[in-house]
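Hey all, sorry for the wall of text incoming. These are the three entities for the joint prediction.
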Amino acid sequence: MFGPTLDRLAAPKFFYPFAGRLLPWLGTLAAALLLLGAGWGLALAPADYQQGDSYRIMFIHVPAAWLSMLTYMVMAGGAFVFLVWRMKLADMLAKCCAPLGAAFTALTLITGSLWGKPMWGTWWAWDARLTSELVLLFLYLGLIALRGAIDEPQRAGRATALLALVGVVNIPIIHFSVEWWNTLHQPASLTRMDGPAIHPAMLTPLLLMIAGFTVYFAAVLLQRLRCEILERERDARWLVELDAP
Amino acid sequence: MLELRDLAAVRSNTLLFRRLGLLLHAGEALRVAGPNGAGKTTLLRVICGLTEPARGEVRWDGTPIRELGDDYRARLAFLGHQEGHFGDLSAAENLRLAGAPVTGSVVDEVLRRVGLSALADQPARFLSQGQRRRLGLARLLLRVAPLWILDEPLTGLDRQGVELTAHLLAGHLADGGLAVLTTHQDLPGLDGVLRHLDLGA
Amino acid sequence: MLGQVFRRELLLAWRRPGDTLLPLTFFVIVGSLFPLGVGAEPQLLRSIGPGAVWIAAVLATLLGLPRLFAADQHSGALEQLLLSPAPLAALVAVKVLAQWLTGGLPLALAAPLLALGFGLDFADLGVLLAGLLLGTPLLNLLGAISAALTLGLRGGGALLGLLVLPLYVPVLIFGSGAVQAAALGFGAGANLSLLAAMLVLALVFAPWATAAALRISLD
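and here's what came out:
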């Protein structure tokens, strides 16, 4: 129902070599974008008039935050497709996304903490974005824990998919409530983590880094998917037995 | 009429059975046999609609049970390994609050038929396994369901209990009901009537 | 059918008063840990009071969540529930309602007493009660999803908590925020309305999600 091309692609047997052909291109592109963006951002862009050079961690922090959210959306998409259309590749996609998303979220939190220390003098501030990211990390950990706790593969895939969808519905609510909570407790004059407006000279390297992170995510995801396909093929001998004469 | 079409089931990456096809009419009973782990309970659960088959479908009167949903469940009564009694409620209360509202006299009658009248007010957790089985049979009688699905119904029953089960089953089939059951033991008086399915042959 | 299930759940809870009293006692104990942990300075207690009572309520609810489905799963009653002709989401809603009446509601009613220990004044107690009356059903509804997903798994209560606590964050924020806003003179209307809106959404979606989770767990 997605059209014959997509249907064909979704079969692991065809997806594996397809992903394999894409990987070197994605990897090279990611490396190029990241090197360019990092070099530009870390060395060439001007120092911020307020924060000096310490703001440069933003070039990692902001893309990581963006990816932590994007990964969840991709995962939720996979979860939905798996629950509705029983496409196994979608379940594999969701499974591979969870640890990646957790890693990006952790990176966001760590870089956020590093950024906050020179700004606020503490290693952690209950800033709205950092707190939201922290709850997002718990959501990811919950997904990983649930999948790990269920032995029966059928149940594991479907339970995790349902949890991912419940999470995706709640993320806007959680985000809104944390923003609400933040305005209730923090004076409005406190500088937000992004700073007021981003100077155009900083914008281009930032966009390069975001693009680079995204392509990197796609590459790592494809690589993990290929590993997952191999693992499942090894365990799914019953698929062959099912159609044997 | 119950139909199994090209049914296959997988559990823990193991293929349990495949290409199962069968038609069961009113008044017929199917006895599923096979060694432990062959998938007998899984098959019963697939027929109930609790477990999804890896392939194929179950049909009731021509319609897939997935489409029938609640309508199918209204027509079936399942008795599993664990009977599903509430230990803190008495036998009578378990029946009175089992599903559709029933009068006290109907409950008393059913308890009498299964031989549990004396234990009507005992909390179910104090009943022996055989007595709990009889209570399960009582619940079957209360449900006016054409399809009975019984997983090892004779476990823990004494000879009287076995005869009672066979008698009730025969009555159910005579009324036009259907039954699918697994059991290691023989059902007196019914061996000629039962159809057989051997899993793991 | 639904009426039968409801009566049965209430009767079972009546026969096991511990199921109600234990979380209630736990609630009071956890609440009492706060002054012991942070010191009994009245100003401090008044400021952490709403949050502390809400956190204690959340934890006490968590304690009671497994009993929604666990016992029924062991006895086989849960399978019977899944095989009944009534819509599963409706049956779940009835079970959650019964659990709230015998778990969450007593908690909400006991909360003002605990809150007195933190030195909150009467007007704020009213807001606390209102918030908990809206929030405890929310906690039960969301918790049911997690309880259904983690049925029979090792890791038990901790896994259930890990899954559901992120979902509880907004409830905690609005519930506690309502009392804090009222204490500052801003009025609790906004926070309570948000809680009410969440409750309506949960009433519509949570039983359905829980039913789906039950079917997945009992596959």
